[in-house]
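Annex B. Sample input.
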Amino acid sequence: MRQSLFMLMVLLVWAGNLNAQDTTKVQTSDIPSAEIRTLDDKIVNARDILNDTVPIVVSFWATWCKPCIKELTAINDEMDTWKEEVPFRMVAVSIDDARTTHMVKNLVNSKGWTFEVYLDRNSDLKKLMNVAQPPHIFIIYKGRIVYQHTSYAEGDEEALFEELKKYR
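Annex B, continued. Sample output.
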């Protein structure tokens, strides 16, 4: 009887610890602390801009990546319509290095993209987020990565929108 009571107490303590760990896990963020820059060369911390109460679509891209440009243009074309149904933020993080960073602002302006664009010149955020090749899209909701997709084929933006609808 004593052994059974002791085992029951051990199980209750163990179960309580599991719940405490799960609660802690929910409160932590998947977004690493890394410095990135605005197109006006101001330094910001990725954790500060990617923690929000609405879903955030984050696209890692580069000026030399044609599928990236197609994907971002397709998203930009649909963004206003999508936002009528699901409030969200769109953030594009360029992984262009020192040789091509100067082309980012001109490309963004020529395409008429209206979303937030940042520069990850040293690929610090790219590495911390385990991005191998662009395009790589994430949906981040309340600091947690809830979806990710690599590569781009025409129509992938519709699948992205379907994922966004889960967080309205």
